[in-house]
Amino acid sequence: MKRIIPRIFPLTLLARWLCLTMTLSPALAQSTAATIEGRVVSARSGEYLEKARLTVEGTSLEAFTNSDGQFRLVGVPSGSARIRVFFTGLEPATATVAVVGGRTLQHDFTLKVAGDPREGGVVKLSQFVVGASREIDGTAIAINEQRFAPSIKSVVSTEEFGAVAEGNIGEFIKFMPSITVEASGGNARWISINGVPPDNVPVMIDGFNLAGTGNAGTGRAADVDMMSINNAARIEVSYSPTPESPGGALAGSVNVVPRSSFERTRPSFTGSIYLMIRDNFDDFSRSAGGREGKKSNHVFPGFDFNYIRPVNSRFGFTLSAGYSTQFTAQDGMSQSWRGVDTATNGAAFPNTTPDRPYLSSYSVQTAAKDTPRKSFGSSVDFRPTPNDRISLTFQYSSFATDFMTNTLTFNPNRVAPGDFTPFSTHGAAGAGDVQLVNAPRYRFNETYMPMLVWRHVGPVYKADVGVGYSRAFDHNNRKPSIGFNNIVARRTGLTVSFDDIFYLRPRTITVRDGVAGQPVNPYDLGTYALVSATVSPRLVGDMQRSAYANVRRDFQTKIPLSLKSGLDVRRSERDFRSKATAYNFVGADGRATTVPAGGDDQAAAFSDPVFAERIPPYGFPSYGSVSSKALYAHFQNNPRQFVENENTTYRNGVTNSKFAGETIYAGYLRADLAFFERRLKFVGGLRAEETDVDAQGPLTDPTRNFRRDASGRTLLGSDGRPLLIGTDALAVSRLTFIDRGARVEKEYLRLFPNLNVSFNLRENLIARAAYYQSVG
């Protein structure tokens, strides 16, 4: 009963509400004279307008159009009714309708631009601005949606900012208020609202959770760069929730609204063909790219398009697609300053004060990345009855990234107390080393998301039911042709010194042999010995399943009242597996070394001549790069020259094997009240959420290696300590360190009250305030 009762709680609330709305007395659900229904369309764009506001003068009646531009005014008094339609950016329209009691009347509205000469208006010229009308229309739609939203919300049309590089939603959202987009590898990836971490910012498409690999972890963060913007109509950011909103929205949530064919009266096709180029490589030459042994272009062609086709009043569809490839140079450097960002230890690195730090390590990196992206989206809209609409939407997006990174690091490793200043560091003789790390990587991501929604707009009830499924995969280094994913070449026994240090680098770096004091060239691959190589495949999967059902009823009373209730079930599963297998290179003689001295461990035997041509940043000369493919081929032909620590490999696999599942059952009640001719509005209610969490991860249990008797008691030795089953490191790990042996289940029920208040000071000035509680 412990698990059943909380899940029944939201269902009970909804059942009671349905019974209440169906049995309300006639005094509350007044019998009205007539109903007026129709659609509102823009004369300029041919789009049916959502959230157009219709009022009946002399009454408190108000209605808003839905996403298809449909409206229904219920309870219009008999006689002559004057109806006013308002939509941001368009000329308000009024019409007088003769109302006959007990009948349903049809009346459509077409809104035009103020002073449009095509409509016979008079144009008053002021500032002359050249702009695309579709962007202006998109902006007006977004502003109007924001104006009449029940909560504090920011809405932006995807056409407002023009073209978006690579179709990345994150590149678009970062321009919205209070939004910070965290980047990784040059890609806008995670969304933060008002400083709240991405794990607490739900990202949805048409109300359904978007899957994301969450930076290869088991958190809730959604990677927005894994979905394309091509099939999106607008982006909504809610800063204060209503009862429909997820309880985990600590500071707000993001919802992407897909395109619909019923939004327009006529077909529409928009598309672009372009060249993509980064301003730091703005030429048509070729250089070493993200794939070993090949040079990459710096400029790539791309395209995208959107096609919206309303076939007739009952059926329509949309199509969208895009393709782009981007070359990115990710050159950089890193520094370790003792006494500032890195601790001193009083031995190898003497203590100092923050006003007298010293540089203890310096790295320069040259890197290249090629990223092709593909996207496809489609939706089908069908209206089986005048009051019902069924929408099936599908979105797919993928990107594949070839990385090639080569990092050169200078380490003094030990510094005498008097051998440093903020502008110079002189390492101890023979204590230093230089290191080259080559890290090729191939990453493939794909996300697909089908969604099905039924919407009903009837004379009494408004309802919608939807189911959605989102699946995302992140494949890293699972392409055998890449070879090793991390190769380390090193030279030890050196004296490393930094002089004339400024904020980017030491202008002078001196490397000498620690014994003879002779200069050593750190930019020559022959200086280095191969030390190790690693293969590290990784697979992260995320699945999001969402289902909801909502029902609403409006009551035309002296104080306008609307009641709404619904159910919401969401299940997420994130699965993370990674296994790093490291090999120490010992060469043909079976002995590892970090001083090649002409032996069989020289890194120069496996040089990558193409990537070695890259010019590093900050004035450094070209330095060598070890070929992953050549070294991997050598490994396959000479496996005995590579020594694996099987225990380390096993423990790496167990440590990086995790699963996190979460199911949220929710039910809510919402009430809308309006006063002073609907100028003062209250929207509030209560949301109940039960969250069930199940997770798996590594289990450490040393007692599994203890010997026991037939009754299960631990056997002790003469020293009083438990007798062990085995002492071999790998055998002990397999006994005591268990893959996904730790299992956790957790349940909790929370209530989330919220209230949004808005007051129309003027038609173009609205004051808002909100109170809410969320998980956090």
Task: Characterize the structure shown.
By secondary structure, the chain is mainly beta. The strands form six sheets. It has a 22-stranded antiparallel β-sheet that branches. The chain has a five-stranded mixed β-sheet with strand order 9-14-15-12-13. β24 and β25 (424-427) form a beta hairpin. α5 packs parallel to α6 (729-736). The longest helix has 19 residues, at 4-22. It starts with a helix and ends with a strand. The model is unreliable at 1-6, 21-32 and 128-132 (pLDDT under 50).
In summary, what is this structure?
This protein is mainly β and 776 residues long. 9% of the residues lie in helices and 49% in strands. It has a 22-stranded antiparallel β-sheet that branches.
Q: How would you summarize the topology of this molecule?
A:
Elements (H helix, E strand, L loop, with lengths): L3 H19 L11 E9 L10 E4 L5 E3 L5 E7 L2 E8 L6 E7 L3 E4 L2 E3 L21 H15 L5 E5 L11 H5 L5 E6 L2 E7 L9 E3 L2 E2 L22 E7 L14 E6 L9 E9 L9 E3 L6 E3 L2 E11 L4 E15 L2 E7 L19 E28 L2 E24 L3 E7 L2 E4 L4 E7 L2 E17 L3 E16 L9 E16 L4 E8 L15 E7 L2 E18 L5 E18 L2 E5 L42 H10 L4 E3 L1 H10 L1 E19 L4 E21 L28 H8 E26 L2 E8 L4
Parallel strand pairs: 1-7, 1-8, 12-15
Antiparallel strand pairs: 1-4, 2-3, 2-5, 5-6, 9-14, 10-11, 12-13, 14-15, 16-19, 17-18, 19-20, 20-22, 21-22, 22-23, 23-26, 23-27, 24-25, 25-29, 26-29, 27-28, 28-32, 29-30, 29-31, 31-34, 32-33, 33-36, 34-35, 36-37, 37-38, 38-39
